[in-house]
Every structure is written in C-alpha cells, then in structure tokens.
Specification:
By secondary structure, the chain is of the alpha+beta class. The protein has 9 helices and 14 strands. The chain has 2 domains: 217 residues, 3-Layer(bab) Sandwich (Hsp33 domain), CATH 3.55.30.10; 52 residues, HSP33 redox switch-like (CBS domain Like). It is 31% helix and 30% strand. The chain binds zinc ion (ZN).
C-alpha cells in the first residue's frame, strides 16, 4: 500500500443553513506518533481516532493555545492522550501496562477529559463519563451536555492513517432551513471508514453532500510536533530541588530524561544542574 501524505484540516459549510463541518486527514502526523512507540494494534487505532478528534476540535480554538483530549480508563490501557495546537501541531501518547499479555481497551467506566489551554489566560477543563462505547459517542455526549452545541463525529483509523469528520450546528445562529440538521447529519452518517481514510476531502464532500450547497474553505496544514525542549525539561527538573538532583548525579553520573511523547533524549551533567541553581554558585 502506498503511503500518501495529506495532513490537512478542511473546513466546509452549507449555504443557507447554520451548519459547518471539518474533515481531518492525518498521514505523516499519525505515522510519526506510532513509529516512536510499540503500541498494540487496538491502542494505535484508538489513539489515531483521538488524534483525528483533537484536530477537528482545534478548529474551534479562537486564540493561540492547545486543545487536549484524554481518555482515562480503568483497564490495563489507562490513558490515551492527544493534543493539537491552534497551529495544527499534533502529538499523542498512550499509557498501558506492558506486562499484560493483551491490551484491554474497553471504554466502559472511562472518562473523557477536554482541556483547553490558551497561551495567555485561564485554562478550561471539562469531563464527561464515556457512554456509547467509543470516542465519537463520548464527544457527542459532551457537546450536547456541556456546550449545548449539536455536534456529530465520525472517526476512523487504518494501518497508515487516521481521519475524522465533524458536523456542527453553530451557536445561536438563525436559519430558515429547519430540517438541515437532520438531513445533513443523516447524509454524513452514511460515510464509510474507507471513504473517510482514502478520499480527498473535496471528493468526500461531493460524495456525501452533492445535493446540498456546500462551501469549501482553504485547507490548513496538520503536522507532528512535540513541545518539549531542554529548557522545559530543566524547569521540570528544577522542581525536584538541588539536594535531590545532586544525589541523582552522585548515583548516576548524569541525568537522562526522555520525552515520553517524542522519545527525544535530554542529558544533564553536573554543570547543567549547577546552572539551574545560580544562587548556589555565588560563593
Ligand atoms: Zn518531546
């Protein structure tokens, strides 16, 4: 199978209605995540769907910042987490018990946590119990209850890519076309996973909505990007305190930190650690 690279977020709307939507295609951005980790198949798929969901939702960010979705579960797969910034930069991670022979990924009794972090200003967090057995159903429930925005999601993940489709009723918009929501969400619900994963966005829109007046906007790019850096890692190490870090240095010779998202290694030697505590070096 050839590997296409088409990491895009495509906005669309329907003329004379209060509905809009997005299509997300994740190719390289998805493969960059899975090539860094040895996740079981079922974890890879769910993480791909979660990444597609964050990409779709990032279109709602009205400021510089990032949106994170966490799926917290009681089984041996305890966490799936995906993030997308307003610039379309994605990263994701799963936590599971490597000793278990089989990944137990059941969404029963799980929770979905949505965090929105502006670069400036207050962080927002919402949480909802997962009902309906999958990520799309949990998001739909969340939007109906917390945001009071009718929203539908279709998410898919294959061997080489992940993709998603979202249709949303805009808040407080008036429209003469009262059955537009029922009609368009019904048309969207006919989408098949293969269509979502394989068809270019415009072709998919034509296939699903050719009887509607669809308006397509310029697509924006999605990419894999990790926000870690040596400086940020140093800030985290600093929290441990001078004495703790000195005893780690004494034991290990140097301190190695690996970013759990992107596997980047950061090495801190004695000089690096001393530089974190300039007040100690004055004498
Ligand atoms: Zn990183």
């Amino acid at each position: 199978m050839s590997e296409i690279s088409r990491d895009t977020l495509q906005r669309f709307s329907f003329d004379n209605t209060d509905l809009r939507g997005e299509i997300a295609h994740l190719d390289d951005s998805w493969r960059e995540v899975i090539r860094r980790h040895q996740y079981p198949q079922i974890v890879r798929r769910s993480l791909g769907e979660l990444m597609a969901a964050t990409a779709l939702l990032s279109s709602n960010l009205k400021f510089a910042g990032r949106l994170t979705l966490q799926v917290r579960l009681p089984g041996n797969v305890s966490l799936l987490q995906a993030e997308t910034s307003d610039q379309g930069q994605l990263r994701a991670i799963a936590r599971y018990d490597h000793d278990s022979s089989e990944a137990d990924l059941s969404f029963d009794d799980g929770h979905l946590v949505i965090t929105i972090e502006p670069e400036q200003g207050q962080k927002y967090q919402g949480i909802t119990a997962i009902s309906g057995g999958n990520i799309a159903a949990a998001l739909e429930e969340y939007f109906t209850q917390s945001e009071q925005l009718a929203t539908r999601f279709w998410l898919a993940c294959g061997d080489n890519s992940a993709a998603g489709l979202m249709v949303q009723k805009m808040p407080a918009a008036a429209s003469d076309d009262e059955d537009a929501w029922d009609r368009i969400s019904h048309l969207a619900s006919t989408v098949k996973d293969e269509e979502l994963l394989q068809l270019p966005a415009e072709e998919l829109l034509h296939r699903l909505f050719h009887e509607e007046q669809t308006r397509v906007y310029p697509a924006s790019a999605l990419s894999f990007f990790c926000t870690c850096s040596k400086d940020r890692t140093a800030t985290a190490l600093h929290q441990l305190g001078y004495d703790e870090l000195q005893s780690m240095l004494h034991e290990l010779g140097q301190i190695d930190i690996t970013c759990e998202f992107c596997q980047q290694h950061y090495v801190f030697d004695e000089q690096d650690i001393n530089d974190l505590f300039p007040e100690r070096n004055l004498h």
